[in-house]
Task: inverse folding
């Protein structure tokens, strides 16, 4: 997690091209925005929004583990 001080949107990286991360997340049923949409500095990040109930966020975190 990088540059996510506010907490509503998280900039997440697996230190790979954002499109590879998007593909991996989609396989887990997690929706995120490719960082490339936000400029060259986001090409190795995805943007994830935390706009769900605590239970739904916990379920998403469990899928990522």
Result:
């Amino acid at each position: 997690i990088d540059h996510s001080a506010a907490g509503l949107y998280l900039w997440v990286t697996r230190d790979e091209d954002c499109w590879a991360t998007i593909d991996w997340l989609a396989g887990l049923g997690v929706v995120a925005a490719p960082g490339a949409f936000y400029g060259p500095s986001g090409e190795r990040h995805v943007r994830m929004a935390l706009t769900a109930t605590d239970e739904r966020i916990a379920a998403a975190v469990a899928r990522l583990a």
User: Anything to note?
Assistant: The first strand starts at residue 9 and ends at 12.
